[in-house]
TrEMBL record:
Organism (species): Pseudidiomarina sediminum
Domain of life: Bacteria
Alphabetical UniProt keywords: DNA-binding, Transcription, Transcription regulation
InterPro entries per UniProt: Cro/C1-type_HTH, Lambda_DNA-bd_dom_sf, Ner_HTH_dom
Name of this chain's protein: HTH cro/C1-type domain-containing protein
């Protein structure tokens, strides 16, 4: 989905980049740049996708960085334990 389509779909839902920026505590410029693929921000990309009622992979299929799920803090702790156990064998 390109930035024009993102902007259009947001407008159909009554939103715009400025509103999204304010809700996230970010600049409208950053929102615009992420939508246009001129900047990367997973948090902004996910917010755009949520506002559109879509997944981040659906809105940004061309951005490899957004295609893998983020690990939670619990996932990280589990992986740390696995690594410690592996290294202590």
């Amino acid at each position: 989905m390109d930035s024009v389509k993102i902007k259009t779909e947001l407008a159909l839902r009554g939103f715009d980049f400025s509103m999204l920026a304010k809700a996230l505590g970010k600049s409208p410029s950053l929102i615009s740049k992420v939508a246009a693929r001129k900047a990367r921000s997973r948090a902004v990309a996910e917010a755009i996708a949520k506002a559109l009622g879509r997944s981040v992979t659906e809105v940004f299929p061309d951005v490899e960085q957004y295609q893998t799920p983020l690990r939670t803090q619990g996932d990280r702790k589990q992986k740390e334990r696995e690594l410690v156990a592996l290294l202590n064998k």
